[in-house]
Design goal:
Layout lengths: L21 H14 L6 H32 L10 H25 L3 H6 L1 H33 L13 H4 L11 E4 L2 E4 L10 E2 L3 E2 L23 E4 L11 H29 L1
Antiparallel strand pairs: 1-2, 2-5, 3-4
Helix pairs in contact: 2-3, 2-7, 5-7
């Protein structure tokens, strides 16, 4: 951090760590004798360790949730608005990442010169910028896009049997409404099922959606769906090309976050192995 030199300047192993070269030993002695930034004491070292642990665990949970939603549940899971639980977890993660990130940066970066003129500092700056972009998308989804998505509800009409995606969205099992979902073009009624209380199945799948792609990932097969009452047919209306601007923005930001996660993981890989 102080010299901007590669690890091989002080370590016998070019990748860093292990035995020191003569130059590395001299630099270490200079630091220990007070010629450099003093190393943190026991209490500060514990703080740094705890902050790093919380930072890492939060990152794993946050990134893991993003990957899970995109690769398994699909973004359509939240197309009617982000559930309150997911929003709470997301914002707690954002705050923890910010607090622990600041603590770790203070321990690691001694000046702006280190931040902008060393390899570690430049990568850290890029990582912070990506984090801020993710926070910006979270703000937009929470306070702008999310409320608009929740308002996009189909007109509830219990007499209709064949439903479009917009009409199906009203049968979400909430506030006394029936619990409908689609599987392979057929609309099923899960209102009386104990596994669909409140319109959600095992806490993951929300009623009012086409869940055809979700079944292959489930621990059961079609035998759990077949006994449910059939309501009617699912009408494909080509709505995918006519989504309102805020819904298109929602899908763009979800896939942008997925891309940013891979970028941050790339930076971490460059820190450790490049």
């Amino acid at each position: 951090m102080r010299t901007g030199k590669p690890c091989g300047a002080c370590h016998l192993n070019p990748a860093g760590g292990g035995d020191l070269s003569a130059e590395g030993a001299a630099f270490r002695n200079e630091m220990l004798s007070g010629g450099g930034t003093p190393q943190p004491g026991g209490g500060l070292r514990m703080l740094r360790f705890f902050a790093g642990l919380v930072h890492l665990v939060t990152a794993v949970l946050w990134f893991g949730t993003i990957l899970y939603v995109h690769l398994l549940l699909k973004p359509a899971y939240a197309a009617k608005g982000i559930p309150r639980g997911e929003l709470l977890v997301g914002w707690i993660s954002i705050v923890l990442m910010a607090v622990t990130g600041v603590i770790l940066t203070v321990f690691r970066i001694s000046s702006l010169e280190v931040l902008f003129h060393t390899r570690f500092g430049v990568l850290l700056t890029a990582k912070i910028a990506l984090y801020l972009v993710m926070v910006s998308t979270a703000v937009l989804v929470t306070f702008v896009v999310g409320p608009r998505l929740k308002k996009r509800q189909g007109i509830f009409d219990g007499r209709k049997k064949d439903l479009t995606a917009g009409e199906l969205s009203s049968f979400d099992g909430k506030d006394g409404r029936p619990t409908y979902f689609v599987y392979q073009g057929t609309i099923y009624d899960a209102t009386g099922s104990k596994l669909w209380k409140g319109g959600r199945h095992v806490g993951k799948h929300q009623a009012g959606f086409d869940l055809t792609e979700a079944l292959p990932m489930a621990p059961h097969g079609e035998e759990k769906i077949a006994p449910l009452p059939i309501v009617g047919r699912f009408i494909e209306t080509g709505e995918a090309g006519k989504k309102p601007f805020h819904e298109k923005g929602f899908y763009f930001m979800t896939y942008l976050n997925l891309f940013l996660v891979f970028c941050i993981l790339l930076i971490i890989s460059l820190w450790r192995w490049w």
